[in-house]
Design goal:
The complex is a heterodimer of chains A (about 180) and B (about 475).
Chain A lengths: L6 E9 L2 H13 L5 E4 L7 H5 L6 H27 L16 H23 L23 E6 L7 H10 L4 E7 L1
Antiparallel strand pairs in A: 1-3, 1-4, 2-3
Helix pairs in contact in A: 3-4
Chain B lengths: L24 H13 L4 H27 L14 H25 L9 H21 L26 H34 L3 H10 L7 H34 L11 H28 L7 H32 L2 H12 L3 H13 L7 H4 L2 H28 L14 H24 L5 H6 L8 H5 L3
The chains are: A alpha+beta (about 180), B mainly alpha (about 475).
Chain lengths: ~180, ~475
């Protein structure tokens, strides 16, 4: 839409390799930016510390879901074996929980796995089919061999000119303004 | 382009030749994307046609089974369990290697697994689908297959949670679901790579949906890696539990030859053994056809052969241990069944099993043989034949000669047993060929992650550019 008014939505800087990207991430963080991200085709060792990210809370979600699975398993077997359909089998008590352990285990694992996958989707805000970065022409390289720092226009300290200068001083191989409606 | 040049050999990476030929990040993407992007080779259509025909045969025979009932199988008194459970256990077992590679080797930081984990996981999913066919159809009255699940119904009827067959429903159901999720999570970054390379609008849109808007940002990678680690941690006990539960189907019963405590570890080892053999068969074909010899290297093949040698000796140990316990227990029936296995009417099956599972893998003591492709190809197929016979021996010998000699009978399969089993190969290869055609058969992001230049410290030694 060439005739429409375009806004600056962010800025994208490309770096040569993972080491440069880690270095840039530290600098961007030290300059007080918050809404930035470092894009790479694979996870880079040491990047979480460089960006100053806290540990992922996914473990708590998974623990909660696993616990729910275990409780659900106990509730299900108790309801079925004691309340809904009590059967005397070789004189065993109705709630012979030892025989239900495989079911408890599998349900714990199943719900934990749901927690891990859908919890991760939630934390990553996925699916999010559109993002301003997809306006960029170069950004497709981030899933091939490109290493990018993106800074979003929504960041309170965002100033395109200042950010550009910072990226230049860090040795970015290319800098692109993200523009769109 | 990253600025890494061919200086890679200045620093020998700790893992040696994980990926051969000093590839760049871009060349890894290109190599793995080539096959799905290049269009469909003629040979693929031939293979797909064959697989589809087999699947059609299988589904037709299953249709007839639904019409006529399980009487068309070779099962009779006293062998009321036949090929259906043999095939079920065999297919589930094959699946286990995929989970071992994707989860257990991941936790042990065996980074060589990255070259083979994607299609090993795909193999797991398709193998479990084939396995699930059998419990689905063996009930005879398929329209009441829902009895297997604890569903509220108008009869007020509920399943018996004390039955190992019901544990199986939960174990295999969970296994399939978790394997599928694990595989899909692994695929997301690679689907995003394909999305960014897609030339047509429809393709791009479809891939955009399935990659869920992945941007490769570290804020995403952070949670992604944690999820992957947790899934690996969950899958590890899961895979051990699944074949243990499958073995409970036998071990919890009172049939001689089944009622033993060695079954869970013995079944798990056998599952991994046969699964690695299947991964080997498929990997050898795929790397040849798609020219991935530098990604699935001789080192990977050799490692897999070592695992087959190890697990082969584990099952060999289990076979001998069973005989020892049969003698040591002083149980007449137990003794009789084992003597019958070795010299009875099914001795041919027993010794086929011993030859394929215990004798054949011994060839891998030799480094030369471990690195010989025709040898490992033949061995991997023989091992899977042997592992099928292992389940045949367990199921059929114990059942067809039960407590009462007057009811003994010799089990013979019918055309329908064989046809439906072949049909599951059709199902398996149909899915597998679709996977090879449309999805990245090697984990692109993970391969890049194990290249030496992926480590930020790599640049400290080689100077900056």
């Amino acid at each position: 839409m060439a005739d429409q008014e375009k806004k600056v939505l962010g800025i994208l800087a490309e770096f040569a390799n993972p080491a440069e990207l880690v270095k840039a991430a530290k600098e961007v963080r030290d300059h007080g930016y918050e809404k930035f991200d470092c894009h790479s085709p694979f996870p880079i060792h040491g990047m979480d510390e460089a960006m100053g990210l806290r540990q992922s809370p996914l473990g708590f979600i998974v623990f909660f879901m696993g616990f729910l699975g275990l409780l659900g398993g106990i509730a299900l077997t108790y309801y079925v074996a004691v309340i809904a359909y009590p059967l005397v089998i070789s004189g065993k008590p109705f709630f012979s929980f030892q025989a239900f352990v495989p079911v408890y285990f599998e349900l714990t694992v199943l719900l934990s796995a749901f927690g891990a996958v859908f919890g991760m989707f939630h934390l990553n805000k996925m699916p999010q089919l559109f993002h301003n970065l997809f306006y960029s022409d170069k950004f497709a390289k981030a899933t091939d061999d490109g290493f990018f720092v993106s800074l979003e226009g929504e960041d309170p300290k965002f100033d395109a000119a200042k950010a550009k200068k910072l990226f230049e001083s860090l040795g970015a191989s290319s800098i692109e303004l993200i523009e769109g409606e | 382009m990253s600025t890494i040049t061919k200086e890679t050999d200045l620093k020998v990476h700790e893992d040696g030749e994980l990926v051969e030929g000093n590839p760049t990040f871009a060349s890894v993407t290109a190599d793995i994307s080539r096959a799905p992007e290049a269009g469909t080779p003629k040979l693929w259509f031939v293979a797909f046609g064959a697989a589809l025909s087999l699947m059609g045969l299988g589904l037709t025979l299953i249709g007839y089974l639904f019409w006529e009932g399980t009487g068309i199988w070779g099962i009779q008194n006293p062998a009321g369990w036949g090929w259906a459970i043999i095939n079920f256990v065999w297919w589930v077992g094959i699946g286990h290697a995929g989970t071992l590679i994707s989860a257990i080797l991941f936790l042990f930081r065996q980074r060589w697994r990255t070259a083979i984990n994607r299609f090993a996981e795909a193999m797991t999913i398709f193998a479990v689908i084939c396995a699930l066919v059998f419990p689905g159809i063996h009930v005879g009255r398929v329209w009441v297959a829902y009895f297997m699940f604890p569903l509220p119904n108008q009869m007020g009827m509920w399943p018996n949670f004390r039955s190992p067959l019901l544990w199986d429903v939960f174990a295999v159901g969970t296994y399939f679901t978790v394997s599928l999720l694990f595989w899909y999570v692994g695929l997301i970054p690679d689907l995003a790579t394909f999305r960014d390379r897609a030339k047509t609008k429809i393709k791009k849109a479809a891939l955009a949906v399935f990659s869920l808007g992945w941007r490769g940002g570290n804020r995403q990678w952070q949670h992604y890696e944690r999820a992957y680690l947790i899934l690996a941690g969950l899958s590890t006990p899961l895979v051990l539990s699944v074949h243990s539960v499958v073995s409970f189907d036998f071990a919890v019963s009172l049939i001689p030859g089944w009622h033993t405590t060695i079954f869970p570890p013995y079944f798990v080892a056998g599952a991994i053994f046969s699964g690695f053999a299947m991964v080997m068969t498929l990997a050898l074909i795929a790397r040849k056809i798609y020219g991935l010899e530098h990604i699935i290297t001789m080192r990977h093949l050799e490692n897999m052969n070592k695992i087959m040698l190890l697990t082969g000796m584990m099952v060999g140990y289990a076979y001998s241990c069973e005989f020892f316990v049969a003698w040591y227990s002083g149980n007449l029936y137990e003794k009789a069944i084992f003597i019958n296995r070795a010299i009875g009417p099914y001795a041919w099956a027993y010794w086929t099993m011993i030859f394929c599972n215990v004798v054949v893998p011994q060839i891998f003591w030799s480094r030369k043989m471990r690195r010989n492709i025709p040898v490992m190809f033949v061995a991997s197929i023989l091992i899977n034949v042997g592992m099928w016979f292992e389940r045949f021996v367990i199921v059929i010998t114990s059942l067809s000669q039960d407590f009462l000699p007057s009811s003994w009978d010799y089990f013979s399969p019918t055309f329908f047993d064989v046809g439906i089993y072949l049909g599951t190969f059709g199902i398996f290869f149909t899915f597998f060929l679709l996977f090879l055609r449309f999805l990245p058969m090697v984990a692109i992001a993970e391969i890049k992650g194990v290249l030496p230049q992926a480590d930020p410290h790599y640049y400290e030694h080689n100077g900056h550019h």
